[in-house]
Design a protein that fits this description.
- The complex is a heterotrimer of chains A (397), B (317) and C (312).
- With 397 residues, chain A is mainly β.
- Chain A is built from two helices and 29 strands.
- Chain A has a five-stranded antiparallel β-sheet with strand order 1-3-8-5-6, with no helix packed on it. A five-stranded mixed β-sheet of chain A has the order 2-10-9-4-7, with no helix packed on it.
- Chain A is rod-shaped, with a radius of gyration of 44 Å.
- Chain B is mostly helical and 317 residues long.
- Chain B contains 14 helices and no strands.
- In chain B, α8 (154-184) packs across α9 (188-217), α9 runs antiparallel to α10 (225-239) and α11 (243-254) packs antiparallel against α14 (289-312).
- By secondary structure, chain C is of the alpha/beta class.
- Chain C folds into two domains: 4-218, P-loop containing nucleotide triphosphate hydrolases (Rossmann fold, 3-Layer(aba) Sandwich); 227-311, Alpha-Beta Plaits (2-Layer Sandwich).
- In chain C, the strands form three sheets. A six-stranded mixed β-sheet of chain C has the order 5-6-7-3-8-9, with helices on both faces. In chain C, strands 11-12-10-13 form a four-stranded antiparallel β-sheet. Chain C has a three-stranded antiparallel β-sheet with strand order 2-1-4, covered by helices on one side.
- In chain C, α3 (95-105) packs parallel to α5 (139-152).
- Classes of the chains: A mainly beta (397), B mainly alpha (317), C alpha/beta (312).
- The interface between A and B is large, with 38 and 39 residues.
- Chain A: It holds the Pfam family NPCBM_assoc.
- Chain A: Residues 278-350 form the Alpha-galactosidase NEW3 domain.
- Chain A: This is Alpha-galactosidase NEW3 domain-containing protein.
- Chain A: Keywords: Membrane, Signal, Transmembrane, Transmembrane helix.
Chain lengths: 397, 317, 312
């Protein structure tokens, strides 16, 4: 990674333009009328860089009202052991031609060795030599070891605090501004409570991203979506967004306010969703309504979808309020149809209010009335009685 | 006048002697041979069908009893048809045979009451029937294991044994009828013919008689749907006078766990029902309990009739 | 006098309106052989059935070996053996198997049956035949098998219904000998028969059944006397005299009947041979034969029923 550290010298304005001596005379003469000539300039002629890293120094070659000028560029004064390169248009160059009234940009890459001493200032001279003249640009480069806490990034959340339920997705839009001089690719990282999930998107885009490039001075909008873990208790949660890259990083604290949400579950008698009943006879089952959510559920209605001819009643008919993690029992009284045949029937049980609803299928095994069994036994007993009577009356002959 | 001593003294001896007699009699050998041959045929047919059609079934063995391969009826149907014949063969000369052999008075001169004779005869017949049925059942299960290659499940065994017990009661009805006729009629040939006539009527012709009678009692009006139902119910009620119908209904429910009713079913009864889910064995038994009760009660009633007639007879020969 | 084994008082059996037995009184002592006589339908078999408790008496009291067959028929039947008329056996079983079966019904243990069965069969000379099927038996063998059953059961009283009917003379003779032996061993025997010579040969007393009653119960001699004739019968063959009137003079003579020319039959209450001889000789007749014999049962029986018929 390349880092350029700018040192804004106090006497910036004085050294901004370095005219050639020859030209200076002419300039003096026509100072008020026309500015004419070739300049080699840089924005920051004195700078501090870090050892072991490659730094780019932007150079500008300006031709003002002259015919196209060819200039060979020479670098001198680079200390022993430093690496350097002169780039133009992305390639290594050693000369440039500047059209009239235009500017060519060049980049001087300097890489001081890791073990370079820090205290000395090195005077590096860049010379542009044309047929007519030689233009000299002196640079003063010193090395700095100390990391400067310079924030080149600013994060500005659009809405720093959002509110929603445990099942909502919290979308934070954050404007990220690259205040540095260089374009960069920046990483996105989030710190959220355990179990929360996050993902990043760019602007209003739909692709998930992990990082994003921001041009120097540009601003991008990042959307951070936070999904709380299910069943998280209601309350305020902090989420941090950290953007880092190009030696810069910045964090912003966001907050989510998770409001509670009811969630209901129906538990059958003895935790089974099956029971037994006798045709035409009322059978009572105790169901349990459990609020596994984080907010109370109110006005829960109880409904059933029974088979034809069945009667299903609830007691109570509805449940006014059920707090989170609370269980409330309700009785379901079913009377299978008189004509129900033995075997299994399905009875749908539904609980609902405005917010939530829950459905279960309750399997009822209808048993044949033992009345007929008793009647059958009665018939057999009667036959046996008649036989006993016959034995009593005619027996022992 | 109160007499001392148990009326059942000697029942065991008579029953065992009767059973032994039947087991060794050519008559029984012939008819059991017939039953076993038909059973083998039925099982062979059903095994063929089961291999072709059934892949997975919790009650595969029960199918062995009920699945039929044309033109043979199923094993259960065979039993319903042939068991009466076995019972009649066992009972048609129970009492009049003793008179004809002039053994009755000699046996009754032993220190036993007359009651023991009839009870012993009936029990002896039931023992033979029970042994035969058990043998047949074991034969079926053995063949099933041999050809299907898997053992019967616990449910199979419970249901088929319950069915076996009802089958014994069904055979008992016919045995009681045959014994009753043998007390009423002095000539064994006549009592055998009488018993066979009853069998023919109830087993073969009853299926034709019931709709006829129902048509007379409750005529069907094509414009009145209720009359169709009414007529059907009459028909069912009349056909249930035959023990064969009752036994068929018991077989249908006990050997088919998914069967839930013997009567007509309406759509509203099936609404919400889980079709094809097997019933517990106890529930199946409860459904046909009226039929089972009727069979047992009929057996007791016929036996009581025979008993009263016999006890009132003069033993002079 | 030996112990009373059987006593009946006023036995009555009615079938609806019909009266089968109209009042029977009878006392039998141990070791007696009693002949039950009478036409068919006179009530013999019904009485036997009542004695055994096989049928309930309408009235009256019975005691067999001190027990009431009407109340304790099982106890009575355990001691009293009954061999019905034309007894039947299970043809498909052997003689032994038949006896084992009735032995079980009699409540004998298997051990006791095994123990007694051979002796019983030997005694009736069926030792070998016992292992054959009854279907191969002759009529006499069946009767003997019936006796063997009673022997096996060790019955103290035996009631035999027509035991000799259908038997050849040899078999009859053997059976009678056996019965006499049993009686001498202290077994009381009641037998019914239409063969009066058989009855006379072995019975100590006879009971004449007539229309549901016992018209007479006693020895044959007593029967002869009771019907107005003597128990002593003298056949006289003489010439030259008419004994018909002369014999009446002798003391004890009940009747004189001319059988043929010169042959008379004199019935008397005692042995009147000396008196008859004297009368013949005194009258100048020639005495060719003078034979005393006891009254014959068949004669007494026939006369009895003729008189009964006449009286009615």
């Amino acid at each position: 990674m390349r880092t350029i550290q700018h040192l804004l010298a106090a006497a910036l304005g004085a050294s901004l333009i370095v005219p050639s001596p020859l030209l200076a005379q002419e300039t003096d003469a026509r100072a008020q009328s026309e500015l004419q000539g070739l300049w080699l300039t840089t924005s920051w002629p004195e700078l501090k860089i870090k050892p072991g890293e490659t730094h780019s120094v932007s150079l500008s070659l300006r031709n003002e009202k002259l015919p196209p000028q060819r200039a060979s560029i020479e670098i001198s004064g680079v200390p022993e052991g430093w690496e350097w390169a002169l780039k133009g248009g992305g390639r290594d160059v050693s000369a440039a031609i500047v059209s009239p009234d235009s500017t060519e940009r060049l980049t001087l890459e300097l890489t001081p060795p890791q073990d370079a001493g820090t205290d000395d200032a090195h005077a590096i001279e860049v010379r542009a030599q044309t047929a007519r003249e030689t233009i000299t640009l002196p640079l003063l480069v010193s090395l700095s070891q100390a990391e400067e806490d310079v924030t080149g990034l600013s994060l500005e959340p659009e809405l720093p605090a959002l509110r929603g339920t445990a099942r909502s997705t919290f979308s934070f839009k954050v404007k990220v501004k690259n205040e540095g001089a260089e374009d960069g690719l920046f990483n996105l990282a989030a710190s959220v409570p355990n179990g929360f999930q996050t993902r990043f998107k760019k602007g209003y885009g739909s692709e998930e991203i992990t990082g994003l490039p921001i041009a120097a001075g540009a601003t991008e909008t990042v959307t951070m979506e936070v999904v709380p873990s299910r069943g998280v208790a209601a309350g305020r949660y902090e989420a941090g967004l950290e953007v880092s890259g190009e030696g810069m990083s910045s964090t912003v604290q966001l907050s989510l306010e998770v409001t509670g949400e009811p969630q209901i579950r129906i538990v059958g008698p003895q935790e089974r969703l099956s029971g037994e009943a006798v045709a035409g006879k009322e059978a009572s089952f105790t169901f349990t309504l459990v609020n596994t959510g984080t907010a109370p559920a109110s006005d829960v209605e109880l409904n059933a979808t029974p088979p034809a001819g069945w009667k299903v009643e609830f007691e109570p008919k509805d449940i006014a309020q059920i707090a989170p993690n609370e269980a409330r029992e309700f009785n379901v009284r079913m009377t299978p149809s008189e004509q129900a045949i033995a075997g299994d029937y399905m009875v749908g049980i539904r609980t609902s209010n405005d917010v939530v609803s829950e459905n279960v299928q309750f399997r009822v095994t209808v048993k044949t009335s033992t009345l007929w069994g008793a009647a059958g036994l009665g018939v057999i007993a009667a036959a046996a009685l008649v036989m006993g009577g016959a034995v009593m009356r005619y027996g022992r002959r | 006048m109160r007499r001392s001593g148990s009326p059942f003294t000697g029942v065991g001896a008579i029953a065992l002697k009767e059973a032994a007699d039947h087991m060794t009699s050519a008559r029984m050998h012939m008819i059991m041979l017939l039953v076993i041959l038909t059973a083998l045929g039925a099982v062979y047919g059903s095994i063929g069908r089961l291999r072709d059609t059934t892949a997975e079934d919790a009650y595969l063995f029960l199918k062995l009893f009920t699945v039929a391969q044309d033109p043979l009826p199923s094993f259960a149907a065979f039993l319903g048809f042939l068991l009466p014949l076995v019972s009649i063969a066992l009972g048609f000369d129970a009492i009049n045979g003793e008179f004809n052999r002039r053994t009755m008075s000699r046996v009754l001169a032993q220190p036993i009451y007359r009651d023991a004779m009839l009870f012993g005869k009936f029990l002896g017949g039931l023992i033979v029937l029970a042994v035969s049925l058990l043998t047949l059942w074991l034969l079926m299960v053995g063949l099933g294991m041999l050809f299907l290659g898997l053992p019967p499940s616990g449910g199979d065994i419970v249901r088929s044994v319950a069915w076996l017990v009802v089958t014994l009661a069904y055979a008992g009805v016919w045995l009681a009828l045959a014994i009753a006729l043998s007390t009423l009629i002095r000539t064994p040939a006549t009592s055998a013919l009488a018993a066979l006539s009853v069998w023919l009527i109830l087993a073969v012709f009853w299926g034709m008689v019931a709709p006829l009678v129902a048509g007379v009692v409750a005529p069907v009006d094509p414009l009145e749907p209720a009359s169709i139902l009414n007529s059907f119910e009459w028909r069912q009620a009349i056909s249930r006078l035959s023990p064969q119908t009752l036994y068929g209904e018991v077989t249908g429910i006990l050997l088919d766990p998914a069967a839930r009713s013997v009567g007509p079913l309406f759509m509203h009864q099936l609404h919400g029902a889980v079709i094809g889910s097997p019933l517990p064995t106890g529930q199946s038994l409860l459904i046909v309990w009226p039929q089972i009760s009727a069979l047992i009660a009929a057996m007791l009633a016929l036996f009581t009739a025979a008993y009263v007639v016999f006890q009132r007879q003069e033993i002079r020969a | 006098m030996s112990a009373i084994v059987l006593e009946a008082k006023g036995l009555v059996k009615r079938y609806g309106e019909a009266v089968a037995v109209a009042g029977v009184d009878m006392t039998v002592h141990q070791g007696e052989v009693i002949g039950l006589l009478g036409p068919n339908g006179a009530g013999k078999t019904t009485t036997i059935l009542m004695l055994l408790g096989l049928t309930e008496a309408s009235e009256g009291e019975v005691s067999v070996l001190g027990k009431d067959p009407l109340r304790q028929p099982l106890e009575v039947k355990r001691e009293v053996g009954y061999l019905p008329d034309a007894v039947g056996f299970y043809d498909t079983m052997t003689g032994r198997e038949n006896l084992v079966y009735t032995g079980k019904l009699a409540g004998l243990s298997r051990k006791a049956i095994d123990h007694r069965i051979d002796a019983a069969l030997e005694r009736v000379r069926l030792g070998d035949a016992g292992r054959r099927r009854v279907s191969t038996y002759s009529r006499g063998m069946r009767q003997r098998l019936g006796i063997a059953e009673l022997l096996m059961r060790d019955c103290k009283v035996m009631i035999l219904d027509e035991p000799t009917s259908g038997l050849d003379p040899q078999s009859t003779h053997e059976l009678l000998e056996l019965i006499q032996q049993l009686a001498s061993e202290g077994i009381t025997i009641l037998l019914s028969s239409h063969q009066l010579d058989v009855v006379q040969a072995i019975c100590s007393r006879v009971a004449l059944f007539n229309k549901g009653r016992i018209g007479f119960f006693g020895t044959v001699d007593e029967l002869a006397q009771q019907i107005g004739r003597g128990a002593f019968i003298v056949d006289v063959e003489a010439g030259g005299i008419d004994l018909t009137s002369l014999a009446q003079k002798a003391d004890g003579v009940a009747s004189v009947a001319k059988v043929s020319d010169g042959v008379w039959q004199v019935e008397a209450t005692r042995d009147v041979r000396p008196e008859l001889a004297k009368i013949v000789v005194d009258a100048g007749g020639s005495l060719r034969n003078l034979d005393l014999r006891r009254a014959r049962l068949d004669e007494a029986y026939n006369r009895y029923f003729t008189e009964v018929a006449n009286a009615a």
